[in-house]
Amino acid sequence: TIDHAFLQSLPKVELHLHIEGTLEPELMFELAQRNNVALPFDSVDQLRAAYQFNDLQSFLDLYYQGASVLLTEQDFYDLTWAYLERCQQDNVQHVEIFFDPQTHTDRGIAFATVINGIKRALHDAQQQWQISYGIILCFLRHLSEEQALATLAQAEPFKQHIIGIGLDSSEVGHPPQKFARAFAAAKQQGYRLVAHAGEEGPAEYIWEALQQLSVERIDHGVRCVDDEELVALLVNEQIPLTVCPTSNVRLKVFEQMSEHNLKQLLERGLKVTINSDDPAYFGGYMMENYRQVEAALGLSTAQWLQLSRNAIEASFASPERKAELL
Ligand code: ADE
Ligand code: ZN
């Protein structure tokens, strides 16, 4: 049987983590006070009690509202640092974090303020704990492709700090093909590419992300099982899926963890990884995801080792760094 010490000891890599989704209610209130931002909640407890979601959109509404307390470079530093402390506790040794610049630039926050705060915290954690990292800029898919292209232009001066481009926010009704030109431009500029697909949206969106956006990894992707031909492709090409178990349960992609298809995906030979997505909202950082998966699905030692290895291999870390992590 799998014990806590074994799960703790596994070298972990997080590939699907929205930094804005690590904003704990306590820090949200602290920053609201520091910045004189009004929150429509009276207390931390009342805010936490509101974290009852029916679907992706009901979560996103609170997530964007929460981000309104982030104003200064120090705010983004504090946010990122708090997340990295959790990484250190959970033996997460490499992180590739998403940020949503449009959520902030549309409120008048400078792109530089956001990325400089995030980057400085990542740098400090690398110095202190040897946690390596990459930063992935996500386009908000409920906004237009023109806005995505404008964001890509804003990122240009910070290009050396950004490893890749992703696509997140409301999935259904915003198919990957809407961003075909923006992703082509990003590829041209040398970015690595990923996209959320097949979380709530259909398997067809996974095809589109692969064929029209040329992404290297699929974020979520759990709905691939609806399409046998797609599963065969994902297995043959060993295209990584960054699966987020607690997120999927909290957003009702699966009714409960025992119904999650992660074990089935692994057994079918898909390159699955475990990630926490928006841990402050879904109640679990990396180890909590490991624990809940083990409690509900009961994986073998070999499957846990495979999950750990998959994440290292699926990362955008250098070959030298991957060799250290393996
Ligand atoms: N933004 C933050 N978390 C997300 C998720 N799980 N899906 C889509 N967009 C997101
Ligand atoms: Zn996500």
Shape: globular
Number of strand elements: 8
Assign the CATH topology. TIM Barrel
Largest sheet: 8 strands, parallel
Mean pLDDT: 98
The value of Rg in angstroms is 18 Å
List its traits.
eight-stranded parallel β-sheet, 13% strand, binds zinc ion, 8 strands, binds adenine, alpha/beta, TIM Barrel, 17 helices, 50% helix, 326 residues
What does this structure look like?
This is Adenine deaminase. The protein is 50% helix and 13% strand. With 326 residues, the chain is an alpha/beta fold. The protein has one domain (4-320): Metal-dependent hydrolases (TIM Barrel), CATH 3.20.20.140. Strands 1-2-3-4-5-6-7-8 form an 8-stranded parallel β-sheet. Strand 6 (217-220), helix 11 and strand 7 form a beta-alpha-beta unit. Helix 5 packs parallel to helix 7 and helix 8 (145-155) packs parallel to helix 9. The model has no long low-confidence stretch (mean pLDDT 98).
